[in-house]
Write a structure and sequence with these properties.
Elements lengths: L4 H9 L9 E5 L1 H6 L1 H10 L4 E3 L18 E4 L5 E4 L7 E2 L24 H10 L3 E3 L6 H9 L1 H10 L2 H22 L5 E5 L12 H7 L1 H13 L3 E6 L7 H6 L4 E4 L6 H8 L4 E3 L7 H4 L2 H15 L5 E7 L5 H15 L1
Parallel strand pairs: 1-11, 2-6, 7-8, 8-9, 9-10, 10-11
Antiparallel strand pairs: 3-4, 4-5
Length: 337
């Protein structure tokens, strides 16, 4: 079997018995600031098999500030994030849209449609990695940034017409953006929304299926219609909607496995969807030992691997110990030997 990164990931996603388990490290700015030498060593020992293509925008995004520095950052939608710690992303304290009467004033950042397809294709041709599209398709999270979480949860209960009008407008924009990315030579499209708390969904499964499942179906269909794979990230407990994501034929899910019953996930979904990481970044990576991390990797592999179907992904985020991050990839190598 091929050891080429792109082929490894393809074989993993199609359960075609890859020669080894592909890997990817996600790095927050905090880790780069606090552990630059350790991070460089980990990257040298365990280079990524998946990378993200830069968008090479022809028009600059209308943002202000730096998302990873203390102070204020304004995203391309106009949402203002307050950040108090260098190296991580802040929070929206004041909603952009206070009254639904003003919903038409929400500015769609159409600059994100100025992706330079030629330069993206050049990036893909120069790499033997599996290339994911850039962008930030996240309807639920962006609605929270625009309305504020408390307001949005009330909106989901009260169902003002303006909520659906704004969501429809956002969704059309996201589909247009994904169509552009799907026309490039990237291998996969990517979207994200955090749907779980520590032990439950943030909304009822019924509401999720009614309002948001159709959106994700469109995103996944765009990917598949263009011969691309569909990747999704979500944090928290999401077991209740995993059957729906399988039903939509999502190819790869990045989720907080340790918020759920990993063995149950394996018995129900292994072989139907690829698990794109991760290893517990709440407790094990910051506070565990390398031996405990290795045991966690063995647990994930035992429960979820099925002629592929797993990607050795973890996040080097705030508080994580570099020796534990390194142990993640050492353990995946040991598991493959």
């Amino acid at each position: 079997m091929s050891d080429n990164s792109r082929e490894l990931v393809h074989q993993t996603l199609t359960f075609a018995s890859p020669a080894r388990i592909p890997r990817q490290l996600w790095v927050l700015g905090w880790a780069s600031l606090h552990y630059p030498e350790e991070l460089a060593r980990i990257r040298e020992r365990f280079p990524d098999d998946l990378v993200t293509a830069p968008p090479f925008y022809g028009e600059p995004l209308k943002t202000a500030g730096d998302a990873y520095l203390p102070g204020m950052f304004v995203d391309e939608w106009g949402c203002v994030f307050e950040n108090r710690q260098r190296g991580i992303i802040g929070e929206v304290k004041e909603p952009l849209l206070r009254r639904w009467l003003d919903w038409k004033k929400v500015r769609i950042p159409r600059e994100r449609l100025s992706v330079n397809v030629r330069k993206v294709n050049e990036f893909c041709r120069r790499s033997d990695k599996f290339v994911l599209a850039g962008g930030a398709v996240r309807p639920f999270e962006q609605l929270q940034f625009i309305r504020g979480p408390i307001n949005l949860y009330l909106d989901l209960a009260e169902r003002p017409q303006e909520l659906f009008l704004l969501l429809e407008q956002m969704h059309k924009f996201y589909c247009e953006e994904l169509e552009i990315w799907a026309s490039t030579d990237v291998d996969g499209l990517y979207f994200a929304d955090d749907w779980g708390s520590q032990n439950s969904l943030l909304v009822s499964p019924g509401l999720w299926r009614e309002m948001f499942k159709p959106l994700y179906k469109n995103y996944i269909d765009i990917a598949h219609d263009h011969g691309k794979f569909a990747f999704m990230h979500t944090d928290g407990y999401v077991t209740d909607i995993l059957p729906d994501l399988v039903d939509l034929e999502l190819d790869a899910l990045n989720a907080q496995l340790f918020c759920m019953d990993i063995e149950d996930l394996g018995s129900r979904f292994s072989g139907d969807i690829a698990f794109w990481g991760e290893i517990d970044r709440q407790y094990l990576l910051p506070f565990g030992t390398p031996d405990e991390v290795r045991a966690a990797v063995r647990r994930v592999r035992s429960a979820l691997e099925c002629d592929g179907g797993v990607i050795a992904q973890c996040e080097f985020g705030i508080g994580c110990q570099p020796e534990n991050v390194e142990a993640v990839f050492e353990a995946w190598n040991e598991a493959a030997s």
